[in-house]
Design a protein that fits this description.
Elements lengths: L1 H85 L9 H16 L2 H8 L5 H12 L5 H4 L1 H12 L5 H19 L5 H5 L1
Helix pairs in contact: 1-2, 1-3, 1-6, 1-7, 2-4, 4-6
Length: about 200
């Protein structure tokens, strides 16, 4: 009987040693799994924060680009109206087709620009803006007041709501000067000489 007790003690000790190793391995596996899940959670949270911050930055930049385009469109509308008011058939500085072409080309330049595609066209928040801009682009400039009055009002209202700063004032002045050169130089070829 003494022999049986010694054998069971040896087996019991040996079993408890194996049991400890199993628990240590199990603990390591659980710790690694918990570490992996914690790492994944923190990584995903960081990615979401970065994506959210990028979206906010892009939206802010989109608002700035939208304001710049509104300035250009407002200047275009104003100078187009002025050119139409000063238009005299056959003897005026510009032909009606030239007035329409200047406006058409400027709108095409705006809608095909990289900043328009990157910051305006890709944003669902600017669908109304895009629709009104497209409305102006699809119609001749000499009939905007008759056909596109809603779009003209849209851009006028947007222009009045601009939050002016020094950069926008400078941009507006630069845009207006460029458009005045197009509309009011006696010969549009003179534009190349002045730049």
């Amino acid at each position: 009987m003494d022999l049986v007790l010694k054998t069971s003690n040896v087996l019991g000790t040996q079993g408890s040693g194996t049991n400890n190793v199993v628990w240590v391995i199990f603990g390591l596996i659980v710790a690694l799994a918990a570490g992996f899940f914690l790492f994944t959670f923190l990584r995903d949270k960081r990615k979401k924060r970065i994506i959210r911050e990028d979206k906010i930055r892009k939206l802010i930049k989109s608002e700035i680009i939208q304001q710049e385009i509104i300035l250009e469109i407002n200047n275009l509308i104003t100078l187009n109206k002025q050119a139409l008011d000063e238009f005299i058939p056959s003897i005026g500085k510009l032909k009606m087709s030239e007035i329409n072409d200047i406006s058409k080309n400027k709108l095409k330049e705006l809608t095909e620009s990289e900043k328009y595609f990157k910051y305006i066209k890709s944003q669902d928040e600017f669908k109304d803006f895009q629709n009104h801009l497209q409305n102006l682009s699809q119609n001749k400039a000499n009939v905007w007041e008759k056909i596109c009055s809603e779009s003209l009002d849209f851009f006028k209202n947007k222009f009045e709501k601009i939050d002016w700063n020094d950069e926008l004032k400078e941009y507006n002045l630069k845009s207006k000067n460029q458009l005045e050169k197009l509309f009011f130089l006696k010969n549009n070829n003179d534009l190349e000489k002045t730049e």
